[in-house]
């Protein structure tokens, strides 16, 4: 019998050791006993991090939706699979059973196939957090189409880039979306994006807000009438374990976003197994992850991981502050949520408000609290623990990435003793290493270094869509035979890990990864801007906020500064989305550069963080005099 459900610390250590000593046997047992395969694998794992090439469950056949839906029907057909909690609480929740979800996915699959979508085709999904989002994701998986979900807060330019990068032939969207008091014109954004996307043949439109939209003849079709006519059964398409399941874009420090490609087999096994253990999910629990399905957290821990375990998963359309700051806690009480998974930025924002917003509600159903996306600071951790968890619910600080597919370092609740701000121990099968800048592994405890992973795990992304070389260069070139995460970490005296943050030019703002380069490109497109550099600085709620240093073209220097700041942020909103807006913009005469012309961000980071006591050696700069001037005028 495999250890699918870990119940105590001794068992964790024992299973961990086994998973590291003989990973193939370990994962083979998990895969064999807990999933439905149409054909077994010939080989559990082949890998070579130099190419890099990673294959799990080679030549096995499956369909992930058969694992997430069909196999539950005999035992759980009337169990709620998805609880949909709408933006406006007055609208009332929807409870979608496994049987209904199966039927809706089948109908959607039939619609997609009728519209000409075939195995391997890319379908872009640009939808708010409504049930159709989960249904279309699963319908794509059922027919073997590769879904590319784009977070519905991205701008038309960002959407177009992602549609074109992987040649989507279809886009699925809605007329509009609700976010708190606001209504957003999603279809309008899609229309603008598609002016740049000649490859898109069909747009399927879900009605959500009922607003007036333009429908383009021959391209745009309302979804509901098609679903009404569709057959309610669709036989799954058999997929190879290594066939791509989806593409999800994440920011890199340079260049365009990276379309991370995840597999059907390994991803399923890894997300399901991590979900079960890290949330200690039991049959009748109600689990809620507040992320958006537009991010990896939503893919792995709203849709695939929970459904593969036959869980009840909550999908929330709205925001934590609407109609008031008690919304999260109201939902926990209303649906008797047992496991609650959110981001530190949301915790910090809510912790600022009156306790009354939490205390008004009965949160006694909670058993596990989770966080993800960025380091959690001590104050936020304690507030979460005391005020929300009443000191009763262990906090799982889960470290992972879009690239890792599932959680990598995390406590197992009721198993691993927790310490605030520590992600604690590697999950089963995960082999971390800390590296120094010379490329040597730092052994022992009480050390700090760059976080790498030494051995493949089933959930690792297999490539970057259309650019395998970039995949190698980004993740496997820095350290020989290791996957490099881009994060720094320390390992304390007992071997617990604490993630200390990015060591590259990715900045995490409110839990969203933002690369500096694309934002700088957007700023530089403004007609008054000559050059710019952005860095992160600490922010009470967002974790980090963005600080831009901007050199203006000479003739523009007389323009009103605040007007210009607004325009620059507008430019960023249009190119990327409002999440990438700058909190501070300082106009500077020059940027500190090395003699080879590289911007010294280290110096700018110090100025932005108001930490200028020790600037280090700046004498080697091309233009050291500019540093004092920037410091004198810092915001
Ligand atoms: C950061 C999100 C500290 C980290 C699942 C990582 C964290 C990046 C944590 C990936 C955590 C994620 N503690 N930092 N518990 N979780 N991060 O791709 O820098 O959106 O590399 O995946 O978020 O962000 P991504």
Topology at a glance:
Layout lengths: L8 H13 L1 H12 L8 E6 L4 E6 L2 E2 L1 H5 L4 H4 L3 E6 L8 E4 H17 L7 E5 L4 H13 L2 E4 L6 H10 L4 E5 L2 E3 L2 E3 L1 H9 L7 E5 L13 E3 H7 L9 E2 L3 E7 L7 E6 L1 H14 L7 E4 L6 H13 L3 E5 L10 H9 L3 E4 L1 H8 L4 H4 L8 E5 L5 H11 L6 E4 L33 E4 L11 E7 L9 E2 L3 H8 L7 E9 L5 E6 L3 E4 L2 E4 H9 L4 E11 L3 E10 L8 H15 L8 E4 L13 H8 L16 H8 L3
This protein binds 5'-O-[(S)-ethoxy(hydroxy)phosphoryl]adenosine.
Quick description:
By secondary structure, the chain is α/β, with parallel strands linked by helices.
Question: What would you say this structure looks like, in words?
Answer:
There is one protein chain. With 635 residues, the chain is an alpha/beta fold. The chain is 31% helix and 24% strand. It has 20 helices and 30 strands. The strands form 8 sheets. The chain has an 8-stranded mixed β-sheet with strand order 12-11-8-6-7-14-15-23, sandwiched between helices. A hairpin with a 5-residue loop joins strand 24 and strand 25 (497-502). The chain is globular and about 75 Å long. The mean pLDDT is 95. The chain binds 5'-O-[(S)-ethoxy(hydroxy)phosphoryl]adenosine. 5'-O-[(S)-ethoxy(hydroxy)phosphoryl]adenosine (WTA) is lined by residues 250, 295-297, 372-375, 397-402, 423, 485-487, 499, 502, 508, 513. 5'-O-[(S)-ethoxy(hydroxy)phosphoryl]adenosine is lined by residues 250, 295-297, 372-375, 397-402, 423, 485-487, 499, 502, 508, 513. InterPro entries: Ac_CoA_lig, ACAS_N, AMP-bd_C, AMP-bd_C_sf, AMP-binding_CS, AMP-dep_synth/lig_dom, ANL_N_sf. Pfam families: ACAS_N (PF16177), AMP-binding (PF00501), AMP-binding_C (PF13193). This is Acetate--CoA ligase.
């Amino acid at each position: 019998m495999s250890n699918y459900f870990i119940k105590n610390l001794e068992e964790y250590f024992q299973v961990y050791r086994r998973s590291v000593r003989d990973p193939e046997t370990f994962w083979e047992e998990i895969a064999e006993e807990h999933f439905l395969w149409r054909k077994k694998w010939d080989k559990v794992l082949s890998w070579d991090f130099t190419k890099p090439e990673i294959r799990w469950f080679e030549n096995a056949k499956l369909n992930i939706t058969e694992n997430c839906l069909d196999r539950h029907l005999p035992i759980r057909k009337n169990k709620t699979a998805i609880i949909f909690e709408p933006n406006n609480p007055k609208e009332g929740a929807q409870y979608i059973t496994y049987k209904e979800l199966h039927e809706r996915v089948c109908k959607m699959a039939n619609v997609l196939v009728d519209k000409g979508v075939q195995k391997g085709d890319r379908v872009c999904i640009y939808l708010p957090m409504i049930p159709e989002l989960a249904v279309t994701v699963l319908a794509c998986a059922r027919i073997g189409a590769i879904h590319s979900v784009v977070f519905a807060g991205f701008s038309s330019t960002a959407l177009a880039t992602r549609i074109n990068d992987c040649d989507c032939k279809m886009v699925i969207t809605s007329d509009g979306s609700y976010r708190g008091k606001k209504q957003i014109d999603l279809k309008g954004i899609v229309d603008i994006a598609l002016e740049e996307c000649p490859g898109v043949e069909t747009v399927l439109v879900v009605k959500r807000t009922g607003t007036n939209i333009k429908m383009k003849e021959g391209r745009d079709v309302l979804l509901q009438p098609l679903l009404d006519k569709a057959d309610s059964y669709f036989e799954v398409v058999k997929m190879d374990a290594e066939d791509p399941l989806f593409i999800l874009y994440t920011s890199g420090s340079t260049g365009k976003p990276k379309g991370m490609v995840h597999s059907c087999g390994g991803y399923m096994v890894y997300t399901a197994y991590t979900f079960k253990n890290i949330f200690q999910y039991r049959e009748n629990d109600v689990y809620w992850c507040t992320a958006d399905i537009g991010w990896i957290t939503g893919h792995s821990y709203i849709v695939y991981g929970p459904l593969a375990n036959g869980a009840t998963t909550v999908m929330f359309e709205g925001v934590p502050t609407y109609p008031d700051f008690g919304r999260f806690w109201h939902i926990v009480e209303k649906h008797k949520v047992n496991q609650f998974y959110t981001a530190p930025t949301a915790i910090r924002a809510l912790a600022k408000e009156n306790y009354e917003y939490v205390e008004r509600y009965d949160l006694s159903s909670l058993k596990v609290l989770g966080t993800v996306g960025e380091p959690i600071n001590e104050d936020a951790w304690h507030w979460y623990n005391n005020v929300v968890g009443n000191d009763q619910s262990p906090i799982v600080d889960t470290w992972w990435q879009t690239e890792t597919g599932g959680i990598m370092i995390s406590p197992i609740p009721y198993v691993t003793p927790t310490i605030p701000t520590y992600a604690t121990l590697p999950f089963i099968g995960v082999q971390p290493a800390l590296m120094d800048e010379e490329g040597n592994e730092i052994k022992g405890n009480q050390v700090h270094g760059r976080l790498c992973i030494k051995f493949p795990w089933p959930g690792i992304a297999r490539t970057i869509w259309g650019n395998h070389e970039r995949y190698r260069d980004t993740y496997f070139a820095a350290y020989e035979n290791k996957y490099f995460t881009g994060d720094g970490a320390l390992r304390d005296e007992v071997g617990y890990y604490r993630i200390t943050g990015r060591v590259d030019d990715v900045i995490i703002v409110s839990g969203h990864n933002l690369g500096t380069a694309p934002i700088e490109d957007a700023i530089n497109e403004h007609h008054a801007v000559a050059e710019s550099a952005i860095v992160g600085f600490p922010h009470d709620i967002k974790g980090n906020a963005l600080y831009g240093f901007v050199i203006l073209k000479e003739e523009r220097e007389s323009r009103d500064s605040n007007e210009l700041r607004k325009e620059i942020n507008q430019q960023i909103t249009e190119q990327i989305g409002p999440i990438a807006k700058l909190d501070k913009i300082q106009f500077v005469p020059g940027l500190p550069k090395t003699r080879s012309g590289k911007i010294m961000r280290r110096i700018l980071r110090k100025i932005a963080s108001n930490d200028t006591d020790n600037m280090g050696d700046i004498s080697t700069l091309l233009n050291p005099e500019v540093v004092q001037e920037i410091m004198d005028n810092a915001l």
